[in-house]
Amino acid sequence: MYAETLTKLIDELKKLPGIGPKSAQRLAFYILQSSAGDVEKLVVAITEAKGKLTHCSVCFNITDMNPCKICENSSRDHSSLCIVAEPKDLVAIERSGEYKGKYHVLGGRISPLDGLGPENLRIKELLERLAKDNFTEIILANSPTAEGEATNIYLTRLIRPLGIKLTRVAYGLPVGADMDYADEATMSKAFEGRREV
Amino acid sequence: MYAETLTKLIDELKKLPGIGPKSAQRLAFYILQSSAGDVEKLVVAITEAKGKLTHCSVCFNITDMNPCKICENSSRDHSSLCIVAEPKDLVAIERSGEYKGKYHVLGGRISPLDGLGPENLRIKELLERLAKDNFTEIILANSPTAEGEATNIYLTRLIRPLGIKLTRVAYGLPVGADMDYADEATMSKAFEGRREV
């Protein structure tokens, strides 16, 4: 019903995750009424990101320089390695400013239902790093979900024999949350992980 | 925290309507892990749409040929004109297959709160068409909202003196809807517009 060019744009936008037919239509009309300069900016951003970004050959974070800024930064703690599933988890940790060591991005979590086993994650590369570099602490920073826990268990079995100190981030009540809104699983983690004051 | 190129892409995506920081991040990662061919298709679709699409000089629908397919189609009813606010309303009507006449796209609705008055709509162009072509019926097809009603009232005052038959689409219960879920306004429209059976 729409002009063919418009239908094609709506179809391409519909392929994006979380974009249904109505959102695709709204985005398409937004793009049509935007200035040529703004559309150009969007197109350049997509093209450049696709062209320039790559995985860091050391930690597998997404980067436009290789090795990435974090791996190259000599002022960071070289003795500590934090294992995360995805680049966005790394970014969430960096935002907190709490951690100053190195990272290893697995590229996902073990999830048999999605056909993702340990062989799909960057575990071989992790073991190579552990053999080469002298880390004194390894921190597991996976989301407390079934997949995150499965990944933690797998990594624990793999790393513990190496004799390196192995920790995981704390699970418990999120800061600012109302006690009576916490779900049962979080509440039991909060009790399980209680500390003396 | 992200590589600069990635931050730039996320920032551009965040400007799109209905796309918040989390969605922008998800879209950016989706684009990064898509094949180069798929990204190319998206970029071409955006660029072509922006470059080729224009408003039909007769009815102001969005089109890649001028006049548009509907205006050019000689098998359509030339005596009937349906007035809609936006191209997407036209598409919704075309989908129903019920209407076979011509269209006029106003480009919006009267909405003083958004600073949109009759002077911002294609009303001058509408009057020119009405003076030139011999329409025997004009159908107002605005959404039954405050803005749609304001536009209908304005157009009615303008068109009625011309002596052309003027109708508006029926408001009432949507087909397939459960009676007891209908809101009060729809229910009163349904009663107001009741017909003898």
TrEMBL record, chains A, B:
Protein's GO biological process: DNA recombination; DNA repair
Signal peptide: none
Pfam families: RecR_C (PF21175), RecR_HhH (PF21176), RecR_ZnF (PF02132), Toprim_4 (PF13662)
Entry GO MF terms: DNA binding; zinc ion binding
Entry keywords, A to Z: DNA damage, DNA recombination, DNA repair, Metal-binding, Zinc, Zinc-finger
Zinc fingers typed C4-type, residue spans: 56-71
Residue span, Toprim domain: 79-174
Gene3D superfamilies: 3.30.60.80, 3.40.1360.10, 6.10.250.240, RecR Domain 1 (1.10.8.420)
Transmembrane among keywords: no
Record carries keyword Nucleotide-binding: no
Family: Belongs to the RecR family.
Function statement: May play a role in DNA repair. It seems to be involved in an RecBC-independent recombinational process of DNA repair. It may act with RecF and RecO.
Name under which the protein is recorded: Recombination protein RecR
Natural source organism: candidate division WOR-1 bacterium RIFCSPLOWO2_02_FULL_46_20
Taxonomic classification: Bacteria, Bacillati, Saganbacteria
Gene: recR
